[in-house]
Amino acid sequence: MELLLYILAGAGVGFLVGLTGVGGGSLMTPLLILFGFPPHVAIGTDLLYASITKSSGVISHARQKTIDWKVVATLGAGSLPASILTAVLLALYFPDASAYQHVLTIALGFMLILTSVVLVFRDRIVAARLKASASSRSFSQRHRPAITLISGVVLGILVTLSSVGAGAIGTAILLFLYPALAASRVVGTDLAHAVPLTLIAGIGHVTLGNVDYALLAALLIGSLPAIQAGTWLSRRLPSAMLRPALASMLMIIGVKYAFF
């Protein structure tokens, strides 16, 4: 019965990801903690889950040539070493997972709050992106490579600690820094960066013993077909109507983990 429950959980989250575009980490990790899994196991398992479920999207975008590989490389130059270093520091400075549990839950809460804010202000972010595209003299545009690299470092640390943000926060970063990128290239570039980041972060958690492989398999069995179903339905339903409700839920959960 537990295995069936996890398969259904994977299907539910996968369907919502396909329908709304909201990152799986922001939904899956809190759900696994609700099921009774320790935060370190929920986060580690979800990171590998994310890297696998998002990989097909990267292949599709690569075929359509909607990935800016230079931007991916710049983000990755910051995020991947930061992710590895984060896992190494957790292993060196804490005797076991229980000792850094509070670090993970606070990071998870912070990233859930940030994700909910991004969802609420998504339209304003897009509007700011269009306005920024008319100006090439802003600070962010003049120092874009350096800011991209630093953003990658911050994202690498926080995604490794929380499993949340590689999608929603990564997209927001691209929208602000690269306003000239077409929407399809923003999505493709974000995915192409998110897959190696979540994979490296997931491997880091594997070395820490934070991955439940039976749980991972059950989640994948449920989610892979459900993501396709949600994506198909998203073309026929106004999925934007669901975002405020999801944002409110993520905000409430985020405040709980960050401050209580």
Structure, described:
By secondary structure, the chain is mainly α. The chain has helices spanning 2-20, 24-34, 39-63, 69-93, 101-120, 122-132, 139-142, 144-162, 168-177, 183-207, 213-234, 242-259. It has one domain. 80% of the residues lie in helices and 0% in strands. α3 packs antiparallel against α10 and α8 (144-162) packs antiparallel against α9 (168-177). The longest helix is centred in the N-terminal third of the chain and has 25 residues, at 39-63. The mean pLDDT is 86.
Tell me the structural class.
mainly alpha
**Number of spatially distinct domains:** 1
- Beginning-to-end CA distance, first to last residue: 32 Å
Rg over CA atoms:
17 Å
What integer is the average pLDDT? 86
Record keyword descriptors for this entry:
260 residues; mainly alpha; 12 helices; 80% helix; globular
What is the strand and helix layout of this fold?
Blueprint: H1 2-20, H2 24-34, H3 39-63, H4 69-93, H5 101-120, H6 122-132, H7 139-142, H8 144-162, H9 168-177, H10 183-207, H11 213-234, H12 242-259
Briefly say what this structure is.
This protein is mainly α and 260 residues long.
